[in-house]
Design goal:
mainly alpha
Length: 184
Amino acid sequence: MEKRKNYFIDKQFQTKFIVKFCLINIVASLLAGVLIYFLNRQTNTVAFENLKVVVKSTADFIHPILLMVLVIVTLFAAIATIIIVLFTSHRISGPLYRLTQELEKIKTKDLSHPIRIRAADQLQRLASECEAMRAEYQQSIRKAKQSWRALQKSKDLISNAQERRQLEHDLDVLISELEQFKTE
């Protein structure tokens, strides 16, 4: 199993992902605070302040405490969200990055490397399908190269010089196309 070296694979995607979830936490905390404040505006609370009995609306009384609690809870939730979302997004962006690299190799006609991603990452099915496609292409190219070799050997059996030259030309074109693919 490969050790994770970099948690920010696709910084733009992962940053947006983290910010969205943090904003959800902040909005939820603010909404809870506002609701508590407004729902307690109609009630009164009796409290002692500096050895005096004071009657205040409950909203005014709990406002400083509520504000402090919401800030602490929001900070804790934001830190937890950043950590959880970073690891979760890494399991998505990491395999996407890896699959992109592997598909770039296939694009350059290099079929020699199997496509693998870590077992715990997302997109295992997509990676498996890409690997099946790569292996199938690799096998097809190998078979075409074997057929070329068989035809190369059989060209000596053709006695007509013009047909033989045409076959040699066609074989040269075929092998030049096949040799562009790296299968080993």
